[in-house]
């Protein structure tokens, strides 16, 4: 069974640009959540989607947004990139109804974003 | 403020030398506590979920326990392949929503 797939794996952008990251969950999983991981802050929750609806949102500015499609695939977008946005962005899928329910998360290998 | 703190930040053990990792939390409305293992360049891999104080879960050389304020991940007779960063995360209620807060992890190195 294929795992969570994230693309691209690595990307370099400059300040002010925008970026879109993609996540394909495990087949059958309808919940997708996104996380930012940095050496200083660790893993921080960005947002979570279930059945194309955002269920939960972390404490990130509005420059960070996401969406989920009818096939459960998800994208996140960061606009007006800042140097501090450099991080590993991780996507996770779950069988449960996301954070409202309970259940183990299956993570992808992440998209490493470098902002110059 | 909701907080999840892991200690120690880093731990170096010799093969066979048992130890424990700690995850303490101050959150309201705890719904569950998760342990994950993360290898360099990879996403976290799920290990355990604990829901209530007194609960224990075991998997190979790992055993997770939960009290009202903290969780321990006990590693018995570790092997070099147990080297990784171990993360704990707490799922808790925030008003009408639910939130997942991660600790910053414990980097474990097991040497021969």
Structure description:
The complex is a heterodimer of chains A (116) and B (112). Chain A is mostly beta strands and 116 residues long. Chain A contains no helices and eleven strands. In chain A, strands 2, 4, 5, 6, 9, 10 and 11 form a seven-stranded mixed sheet that branches. The model of chain A has no long low-confidence stretch (mean pLDDT 91). The model of chain B has no long low-confidence stretch (mean pLDDT 93). Helix content of chain B is 0%, strand content 63%. In chain B, the strands form two sheets. In chain B, strands 2, 4, 5, 9, 10 and 11 form a six-stranded mixed sheet that branches. In chain B, strand 9 and strand 10 form a beta hairpin. The A-B interface holds A 4, 33, 35, 41-45, 55-58, 90, 92, 99-100, 102-110 and B 31-32, 34, 36, 41-46, 49, 51, 87, 89, 91, 97-105.
Compact summary:
The complex is a heterodimer of chains A (116) and B (112). Chain A has 116 residues and is mainly beta.
């Amino acid at each position: 069974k294929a795992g969570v797939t994230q693309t691209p794996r690595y990307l370099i952008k400059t300040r002010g640009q925008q970026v879109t990251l993609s996540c394909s969950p495990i087949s059958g999983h309808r919940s997708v959540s996104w996380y930012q991981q940095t050496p200083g802050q660790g893993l921080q929750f960005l947002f979570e989607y279930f059945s194309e609806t955002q269920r939960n949102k972390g404490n990130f500015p509005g420059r960070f947004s996401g969406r989920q499609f009818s096939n459960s695939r998800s994208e996140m977008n960061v606009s007006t990139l800042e140097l501090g946005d450099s991080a590993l962005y991780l996507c996770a899928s779950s069988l449960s109804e996301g954070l409202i329910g309970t259940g183990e998360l299956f993570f992808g290998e992440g998209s490493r974003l470098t902002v110059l | 403020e909701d907080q999840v703190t892991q200690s120690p930040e880093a731990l170096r053990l010799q093969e066979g030398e048992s130890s424990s990792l700690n995850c303490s939390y101050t959150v309201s409305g705890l719904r569950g506590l998760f342990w994950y293992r993360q290898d360099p360049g990879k996403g976290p891999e799920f290990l355990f979920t604990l829901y209530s104080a007194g609960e224990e879960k075991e998997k190979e050389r790992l055993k997770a326990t939960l009290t009202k304020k903290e969780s321990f991940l006990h590693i018995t007779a570790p092997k070099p392949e147990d080297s990784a960063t171990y993360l704990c995360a707490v799922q808790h209620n925030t008003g009408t929503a639910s939130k997942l807060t991660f600790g910053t992890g414990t980097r474990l190195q097991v040497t021969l």
